Amino acid sequence: MKRVARQATGAWGTSPYANTPNPAFPIGALAGDVIDIMTAGEIVDLDKSVFVAGTRFYAKPTGAIVAEGASAAGDVPIGFTVEAGRLIVRYAVGTPAKA
Question: The dihedral of CA 90, 36, 27, 97: what is its sign?
Fold first, then answer.
């Protein structure tokens, strides 16, 4: 999650070339926007005693990752384990938080 506010000027108006973003300019996202590019993927070689097969995992507003049993209202589902130590990440922007 991004923790700083969007810049007052956009990245598009600072480039010397028309309609080309300036790579040196900060990303223009709002505080709290997801900016990590991993929205679908796999994380392997995790602690098999924590990432047990068949478990759904959630992200807390603090950024902590917890198993379904430790999740609470407001946590966002991010993925599941298909085998011990292998987390499949599937996150779509706008995924509803746990009720």
Answer: positive
- Taking the domains of the chain in order of start, what are their residue ranges? 1-35, 36-99
Instruction: Count the helix, strand and coil residues of the chain and give each as a percent rounded to the nearest 5.
Output: 5, 25, 70
pLDDT of residue 27: 54
What 3-state DSSP class applies to 36? Answer: coil
Strand partners, 67: 57
62 has a pLDDT exceeding 90: no
> How far is the CA of 94 from the CAs of 10, 48, 76, 91, in angstroms?
24, 30, 10, 9
Sheet with 40-43: strands ordered across? 40-43, 86-90, 76-83, 56-59, 65-67
What number is the average pLDDT over the span 11-27? 51
pLDDT band with cut points at 50, 70 and 90 for residue 81: very high
